[in-house]
């Protein structure tokens, strides 16, 4: 399959229904990277998932689960979306998230009830039906009240604090049952970047919640952590994050954000964080014990949804923008968040043009390789 995909690069311009190959596709990098095939996510009627701006991916009750950020179409926001992994078929909560009293009475109720920018999702491994998410850009909302501004002004980052949110799924729907604003120590130099904040979350069995930051004041991706101890959600006070001693890539220039995280324990022994670096089309393998990381170069493909199309299927994507990942058994599942600024660069074949214009996401999968985890 990989050989066929590589050969398809050279055939693109000769195909009747295709335009020239995308400018940003480097044939040499394609040949040296791992091909990861995607499936268009659809509902039971075969209709594509239109403009959900999917962020985060986790596993619950045998299904993959994701949610939408504040850029999604209104009907998709503040809902959990459930995906059958093998069929790439989705369904969504019928109603938007409710708020428990502790959240409704907090300083953040107006923001969370309107268009919260939810950017990651992880299921609690020890509490079935409980999820955690985090907010990013709150510049769309009004300012906090004077009292609330005074209480939460020392964020160490943005004016409006980043929020950890607890979700609980029951037979009656999904409810926000807790909220805690995050406080960074000023010495961490996180910087004030409302739309380049926390976008990845992962959780280990010891209840350490890892938070992946897109970039800090020095343009570097970072990973922080919070310990979810008993009584954590009984308060709406600041929670101070820590910075675990993890080895991460460092860069002298450019944007290399972490846009998704997953936790994985290899052979039930050593723990790893798997990070999606969407700008680089890379998967980072980050040992939890601080030993050296690995970078796995990938390229992503989309099926051509037409038997009559003259275009090669699958076709190599110019921009996938992975923002969610989760390990199930020995398979890494990945979900993209169509990047509105760049997603239309994928258009080459008429058969898929409507999918890209609708900002339709894909579900990708690839087997884990033992070599990624051998010291």
Protein described:
The chain has 375 residues and is mainly beta. The protein has one domain (2-373): Glycosyl hydrolase domain, family 43 (Tachylectin-2, Chain A, 5 Propeller), CATH 2.115.10.20. Helix content is 10%, strand content 35%. The protein is built from 6 helices and 22 strands. The chain is globular.
Summarize the SSE layout with pairings.
Layout: H1 2-11, H2 27-31, E1 34-40, E2 54-60, E3 63-68, E4 80-84, E5 89-92, E6 98-99, H3 101-104, H4 109-113, E7 118-123, E8 130-135, H5 146-151, E9 163-170, E10 173-183, E11 198-203, E12 208-213, E13 222-227, E14 239-240, E15 260-266, E16 270-277, E17 282-287, E18 294-302, E19 315-316, E20 322-328, E21 331-336, H6 350-357, E22 362-367
Parallel strand pairs: 1-18, 6-10, 10-14
Antiparallel strand pairs: 1-22, 2-3, 3-4, 4-5, 7-8, 8-9, 9-10, 11-12, 12-13, 15-16, 16-17, 17-18, 18-19, 20-21, 21-22
């Amino acid at each position: 399959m990989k050989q066929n995909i590589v050969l398809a690069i050279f055939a693109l311009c000769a195909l009747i229904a295709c335009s020239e190959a995308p400018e940003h596709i480097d044939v040499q990098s394609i040949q040296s990277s791992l091909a990861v095939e995607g499936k268009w996510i659809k509902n039971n009627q075969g209709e594509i998932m239109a403009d959900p701006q999917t962020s985060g991916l986790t596993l619950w009750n045998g299904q993959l689960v994701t949610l939408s950020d504040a850029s999604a179409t209104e009907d998709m926001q503040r809902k959990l979306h459930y995906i059958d992994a093998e069929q790439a078929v989705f369904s969504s909560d019928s109603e938007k998230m409710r708020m428990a009293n502790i959240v409704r009475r907090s300083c953040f109720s107006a923001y969370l009830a309107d268009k919260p920018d939810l950017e990651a999702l992880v299921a609690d491994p020890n509490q079935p039906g409980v999820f955690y998410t985090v907010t990013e850009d709150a510049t769309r909302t009004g300012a906090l009240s004077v009292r609330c501004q005074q209480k939460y002004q020392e964020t160490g980052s943005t004016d409006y604090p980043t929020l950890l949110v607890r979700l609980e799924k029951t037979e009656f729907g999904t409810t926000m049952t807790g909220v805690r604003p995050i406080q960074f120590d000023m010495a961490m130099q996180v910087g004030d970047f409302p739309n380049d904040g926390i976008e990845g979350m992962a959780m280990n069995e010891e209840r350490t919640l890892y938070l992946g930051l897109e970039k800090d004041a020095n343009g570097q991706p970072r990973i922080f952590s919070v310990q979810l101890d008993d009584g954590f959600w009984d308060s709406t006070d600041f929670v101070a994050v820590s910075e675990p001693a993890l080895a991460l890539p460092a860069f002298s220039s450019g944007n290399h954000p972490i846009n998704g995280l997953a936790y994985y324990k290899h052979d039930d022994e050593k723990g790893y964080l798997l990070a999606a670096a969407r700008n680089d089309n890379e998967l980072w393998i980050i040992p939890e014990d601080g030993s050296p990381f690995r970078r796995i170069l990938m390229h992503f493909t989309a099926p051509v949804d037409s038997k009559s199309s003259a275009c090669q299927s699958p076709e190599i994507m110019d921009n996938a923008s992975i923002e969610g990942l989760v390990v199930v058994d020995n398979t890494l599942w990945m979900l993209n968040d169509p990047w509105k600024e760049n997603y239309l660069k994928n258009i080459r074949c008429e058969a898929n043009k409507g999918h890209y214009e609708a900002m339709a996401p894909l579900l990708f999968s690839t087997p884990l390789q033992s070599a990624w985890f051998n010291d």
